[in-house]
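Appendix B, Record 12. Input sequence as logged:
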Amino acid sequence: MGSVKVISDSGVFRDLASGCSGRKWDRCVGFPDGGASPSLRQCATGGCSVQRSNGAVADPPPGINRAADNPASPTGTLRAAPNDPSAMADRENLVYQAKLAEQAERYDEMVESMKNVASMDVELTVEERNLLSVAYKNVIGARRASWRIISSLEQKEENKGGEDKLKMIREYRKTVEKELKSICNDILDVLDKHLILAAVTGESKVFYYKMKGDYHRYLAEFATGNDRKEAAENSLVAYKAASDIAMIELPPTHPIRLGLALNFSVFYYEILNSPDRACKLAKEAFDNAIAELDTLSEESYKDSTLIMQLLRDNLTLWTSDVQGDGERQTLFVAVNVSLIGDQLFWGINP
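Logged structural output:
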């Protein structure tokens, strides 16, 4: 099986086979000769999964924009914001603390600052929403990469039959899984108790339900038995809720709606092992967007068309799988996309 290319929720390309990620990518995307598949090169060096919310996701690869979770849109509408000036000052200070923590790459503290903002039960601005998303994606991104590497080492050791080393590896994997579960449950709690309830706009509702689906999907990636079944069911419910709202509130070309379709289709393919449903969903999203492509503003054209290209590339691979022509693989996995300025970076996490 070829290496799996992933676009993280916070916009960082990752090579799951090599463990490379982040700022070390040597040019990630291009569509040479008008082909349907992007030109991808392995990262020169690996190990970095730092992602930023300011459109410069840790020295992003050149030529890629950042879009999807926070597309070109109003800066956000506040709902029931506290009238107390001191409360507003606290909110501004927390946001600034989060920005400082991001610049210092202290993402656990960035998470805490944005959790405090979310607990105010107001609709977050796009900037605040993006800071929250990027904070959690950086915190969980390193653990997801670690889990994949450890799982790969475990498989290799199983083939060798080394029981002593296997025991150590499995214990280490369980430690990482415990951290993953804690992070996922933390943001899911914030989403259920604060963010979803306070959301007013259709865009923010889709964003949060999509985020909920993503983090349940992350749980399903390593869970087993009934735990995996429960995580998959919760992810499906959240993605469907996001889709129902998106169909009414967002046009087919909206980056968040397209990003949702991309992630939802990956869920069908990777978690539910259903290539046919994955292809159907991705194709419908692509075709619906194509039909209204001429209505796109210049501002969001690049963002939407890039996501459409990712949908098309996954379709190419998945169609081969359905036809039995190749091994199961996913070229791109998207999760959260955020538009900052005119650059589209996947501030993705599938």
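The chain has one domain: 5-348.
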